[in-house]
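Quick one - first record:
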Amino acid sequence: MKFTAQQIAGILEGDVVGNPEAEVSKLSKIEEGTEGSLTFLANPKYTSHIYTTEATVAIVNKSFIPEQEIDTTLIKVEDAYKSFSKLLEYYNQVKNNKTGIEQPSYVADTAKYGENIYLGAFAYIGENVTLGDNVKIFPNAYLGDNVTVGDNTVIFSGAKIYSETVIGNSCVINAGAIIGADGFGFAPNEDGEYNKVPQIGNVILEDFVDIGAATTIDRATLGSTVIRRGVKLDNQIQIAHNVEIGKNTVIAAQTGIAGSTKIGENCQIGGQVGIVGHITIGNNVRIQAQSGIGRNVKDNEVLQGSPALPYSDYNKSYVHFKNLPKIVKNINDLEKK
């Protein structure tokens, strides 16, 4: 896809300085710009590159005043970083603006769908599935029986949505995600063998939820595993049965949350965090990467370590830990004396 500087300026409500008909068809970093590419300058540390970049068009702040000649066409906006982000969002919308039902694909006779949907080749839509308007389901995705998907939701290639799952409006399910698989429920018998406990609940994703690639969210044993409005989950996260995650909480990659744990609103959880089951984590909690959480957590706590400590206590303790060999040596020297 090609866009002129004037078209881009119209989208961003900016002003063109240079050739309004200059065309771009790709994006680039300012220091790696090539002919036909669009870049941006927001960080003053990169200002020197605006004079040497080979990018055809650059987005800059209106406050930017060149100190030497520039060959690149400029688009001046109030905030270059925000405008570039807005342009990326627009580009994604254009790129993914597909409609129609490709073949071969399977749609059960009892399935219902709204207007302007896209269904990619080899996708499977089960019995009694309901799809809202503008839903996009990419090739090789699977939606089991009785799944509901709200308006403007996108499900990328290879995602597997098990039966009874409810997905809200404007959600994004990335490639390879698995929503609604059985929870890890087994009970030992008198012979020491483990019998499967049926998992008959479901998963509910509220509106504006993003699920990363290869992330798994297990269905509840009874009731629902619930991901509240605005939650953002990174790639390769494990959410166990009956977990509830409060609205606008963000979780980084490779975190695992065990069954029936409740996480509050507006939390920030780093990568590779492990959280045990059947505990409650409050609102506005921040957990640093690679921490292990084995207890209830109050609102507004900041934790680090395994087992996790309050953030300031962890840092103080770590100073002593680093000095431990020296401390042991000093004790040994004192004992010898």
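second record:
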Amino acid sequence: MDIKADKLATIPLRHTPSQRLTRLKARRQRWLTAHLWLGLTLGFLLSIYGITGSILVFHAEIDEWLHTEMLTVQPPEHAEYRPLAEIFEVGRQAMPSTAKHTFATYPRNAEAAFKLNFAFPNAGAVERWLVAVDPYTARVTGKLLQGRSDNWQPNTFIGLMFELHYALLIPSEDISTVIVGISAALLIISTLTGLIVWWPLTGKWRQALTFKAKAGKVRFNYDLHKISGFYTLLVMVPVLFSGIYMVLPHNVVPVLELFSPVTYRYWFQSAAPKPDAPAIGMDEAVAIALKQYPTGRPHWIYGAPNPNQTYTVCQDGVDAPGSLLERRCTVIDRYSGKILDLDDPSLPTATAGEIFTHWQWPLHSGQAFGMTGRILVFLTGLACPTLFVTGFIRWRQKRRPKRHPS
């Protein structure tokens, strides 16, 4: 036996650069197939999420523009807000006695009205109403029927956008949350496979990051698709994941808890000391939150219409050293006024899981980085239908049979 030949046979062959490139291209083709079919099947949903999400980034401004007389006020000179209890009481008196105060939105600036949300049964269904109150005079500036439980279509434009974005107008919450959550998870996979397909195997980074000059329609469509996908990737993935977290928290939180403890504020309940025990008012809940965070401006105030529910007061502008986010939410027992939970990433007891979940809403809305963040989320949302349309056109172009000269 030839000993030299035997030794050579045991040495693994090294792939040449061209062979390695061929293998990578074959592997990328498999990722391209996955990206293609995920895009074709879910691209329309991505377009809906994107367009409605872009609108909802500025939902407060749009709502005020659509209902100017009701949702905006003229602040008098050197005037202060009326007591919160008076404002809430005026709103309650504008509704039937059976109405429950479910939610309130603090004015976002000096020209905005208080927005108070109520729900009450009427003709076999539950109606949802918005009552606007001038914070300087405690005068009702208008009422608006937002929708009924027996009607799948909301009565307002912004309400329609919210229902499309979070539930695709599907009446059943159990079905809509699963569809939205699973589709968002698959869209994350589609986004990541798109990154793999985009990655320049030959190192031509400039070509991958820019439009080709003087290119035709086919090349322009291709470049628009890949560049839109790449430049929105860092926003797209966090927004999609935070969407999953918000619609399927009962599924996401247990997974996060495998890595770090997490508390979810909506799971806390008020403990009634006895039947028909008196509850503190929403204004008292706000006072408790302001005592906890004196520098914070109240934003969202979650009511407690049912006996076991809690008040939650979310504040913006809380200045905490070492914390990038200035939003804090305080969960309060509706009977005792005891603070049950603080959604505060600056606390020394805050776990990595709690800090991670605290970031989800600010990232989803873009508010984590102020107006810059909101604009980035807005543009990313607009890129979603662009990605779907250009991807569909690209697919049709590649399916078109090539013409051979006769």
